[in-house]
Amino acid sequence: MLLKNKQHLLLFILTLSVLLIGVFAINHLPELQMKASQVLTWVRVALNPAGQLPTAQVSSAKSVEQSPFWLPDLFTVEPGSPETTVTLAAKQALSALPGSVTLTPPFFDETKDYQDWNNCGPATLALGLRYWGWQGDQFTISQLIRPKRQDKNVNIEELAGYVNTSADGLQAEVRTGGDLSRLEDLIAGGYPVIIEEAFKVEKSAWPGDDLWAGHYLLLTGYDQSTRLFTAQDSYYGPDRLISFADIADNWQAFNHIYLVVFPIGDLPKVQTLLAQDWPVQDNLKRTAAAAQNQVQLKPGNAFAWFNLGSSLTDLQDYASALQAFDKARALGLPQRMLRYQFGPLIAAYQTGDQKDLAQLADYALQITPDSEEALLYKGWAYELAGDHLSAIALFHKALEANPAYMDAENALAIVRP
Question: Most CB within 10 Å of its CB: which of 199, 382, 392, 395?
């Protein structure tokens, strides 16, 4: 009888232990997922080192250094076009900026506004929307555009897409080629600005990690006398002061891209503030011209070459873009570059360079195995090689990684037999 009671007691203790472990696991599932992913990443890259982003397998037909790019008629716009015309009075008003402006920052709830794992995009956008009275948080956004927590990147176009489809009464516009004056113009006009910039992670994710990553900031103020911006930072917290020089340096890696959110009724005012950069095509041409100037001034700057490639890709000059990307890769780029920007993959696909496309996609997947963009372009590499079934399988994997990824849906519609 005593033996049976001991067995029952042991069974009860074991059952209770399992239940307690289960409750703990459920309550700490996000942390456990993150830790497990970090361990798997470390082991995966340790067994198969990523190294540096590979250079092109075959050199471009022309030497980029010997044949500088030329973009004729870069600043040509239709005379008298109402959407590109900025009056003299408006230009004069824009030139007379106050020395400092501090917009009332959105409320930062320290219990839920620090970014979740790899969620700086939705977290920063939530702060930007809250400035305009929007009710919600980072998870309101991420559940729609980043439904899987393992997704490590949200593109700035996805953030703008959320605003334009899901934030009533608000509009978002994305432009490239910004500068510090443009940031000051918008902030002085009453519009916080989101930028994407380079960021140094604090811990290595794998052996040989160069610690370079991308990050979003919401800028809500500036002071020309101290040369400081005020930023709402989903990683470090509210009202962070950042020097003009640091913003300029870190912003370069993302082609000086910026996003501004505004009430739809403010459209004419924002058009005036953006001036000649309001028409998207004109903005792309001006950005390409600025990048071209940078590579001529600083031919050893890999980010300048990459930005030129990105701008030429946007302008659909894929052959020239490929040359610029080849130069950037030869100079050396960060390991996570293809987690955030996909111009080299697009240019390789559009020029039919199957081998280089496969090489780039494989490297991107080594760094970020659940990247829907890298999975998509690995699929296109298979398609260029005539392997339709493998292409379809990769497009499905891209959709599994992000069920909202329309590029993968479109790829399946094109390739599926």
Answer: 395
Task: Specify whether the CB–CB gap between 408 and 376 falls below 8 A.
Answer: yes
Helix residue spans in 48-119 (DSSP H):
88-95
CA distances (Å), 85 to each of 55, 82, 264, 273, 281, in order? Answer: 43, 5, 20, 12, 15
Burial of 344: CB neighbours in 10 Å, binned 0-12, 13-18, 19+? buried
Tokens for 35, please give them. 């830790």
Residue position matching structure tokens 């074991």: 14
Quick: pLDDT tens for 14-55.
666 556 655 554 455 556 666 676 787 788 778 888 888 999
Question: At 258, is the secondary structure helix, strand, or coil?
Answer: strand
- Dist. CA 378–CA 367, nearest whole Å: 14
Within a 13 Å sphere around the CA of 274, how many CA atoms are in the beta-carbon half?
Answer: 28
127, 150, 146: which is closest to 137 by C-alpha? 127
User: Residue 217 pairs with which residues in a beta bridge?
Assistant: 195
Euclidean distance between CA atoms 399 and 417, whole angstroms: 18
Residue corresponding to tokens 């500068």? 179
User: What is the residue-averaged pLDDT of the chain?
Assistant: 88
Contact 361, 374 (CB under 8 A): yes
Which long-range contacts does 408-415 make (Cβ < 8 Å, 24+ apart)? 408/372, 408/375, 408/376, 408/379, 411/376, 411/379, 411/380, 415/379, 415/383, 415/388, 415/391
Q: Specify whether the backbone of 370 is left (phi greater than 0), alpha (psi in -120 to 50) or beta.
A: alpha
Q: What percent of the chain has pLDDT over 70?
A: 82
Could you give all domains of the chain from N- to C-terminal order, each with its CATH number?
2-47 (no CATH), 88-277 (3.90.70.10), 283-415 (1.25.40.10)
